[in-house]
Amino acid sequence: MANLRIPPALVLVAIVFLAGCSDAAARHTAPTERPPAGHATPTGDAEPTIPPDAVVVASETDAARDAYAAWIGAQDDFLTAQYTATSLRTLADRSSDEVYTALQWRLSGFTADGIVQRGRHEIPRFRTLDPKDVEVPADYAMAITPATADVAARACLDASAVEYVDLEGAVLGRPTALQEIDLLFTADGPGGALVVAYAGSAGGEACG
Q: Do the beta carbons of residue 159 and residue 125 sit within 8 Å?
């Protein structure tokens, strides 16, 4: 069997391309009836008004987290040999063209080497950033820059349940359990949805 190749970005699968949880929708619950902001509640207390900027930031964070979760989950599907037409479509829809090309190369390399993933990634923490706080390596070969990104974020990627095995089930290696990942998104997906255009280590391993 070919030598095990787990690039530093494969924990993040390919430049940190490892994407989104199939249960992302479970985070969204049905809305409950609430009185309009600023109106009195049944207890007589005024409902606090949420600043419009805070609503925009929360919505942007949710959209970015959902995009990253979908992206990581689809890669988990592929590497655990549970890939479907839906997961492959998700990879295409949630990646920039350049990232998708790199992903295809990386993932096909795992398949050719007979490497299978056991376990799935989690995203315990996620927050949006000012794009200027993301440092893209000078030798990064893709066109995205913080200046051209629509949204930037930092995620804690938990791979503590993940290991890589050969076709006989022998363990070949394990990724770093916790890593902080910097992300850049552009609104180039279907209907203007966010896509992952950069994912790279933020330099932290504890997700503090």
A: no
4 within 8 A of 197, measured Cβ to Cβ = no
Contacts of 181 (CB under 8 A, 6+ apart): 12, 16, 154, 155, 156, 157, 199, 200, 201, 202
Residue 91: DSSP 8-state: H
**pLDDT tens-digit readout, 147-176:** 999 999 999 999 999 999 999 999 999 999
User: Apex CA 195: angle with CA 176 and CA 184, to 5°?
Assistant: 60
Domain ranges (residues) in the chain: 52-201
- The CATH architecture one would assign to domain 52-201 is Roll (3.10)
Q: Which H helix or E strand runs over 199?
A: strand 195-201
Q: Going by DSSP bridges, is the β-strand pair 116-118/163-165 parallel, antiparallel, or unpaired? A: antiparallel
Which residue is it, tokens 């893209």?
Answer: 136
3-state SS assignment for residue 46? strand
Confidence band of 205 (pLDDT split at 50, 70, 90): low
In DSSP terms, 129 is beta-bridged to 152
CA angle 68/58/191 to nearest 5° reads 55
148 alpha carbon, distance to own chain's centre: 19
Place of tokens 């992300």: 183
| Side chain identity at residue 154, one-letter code | R
- DSSP annotation of 98 reads H
pTM: 0.73
Rounded Cα distance between 48 and 134, Å, is 34
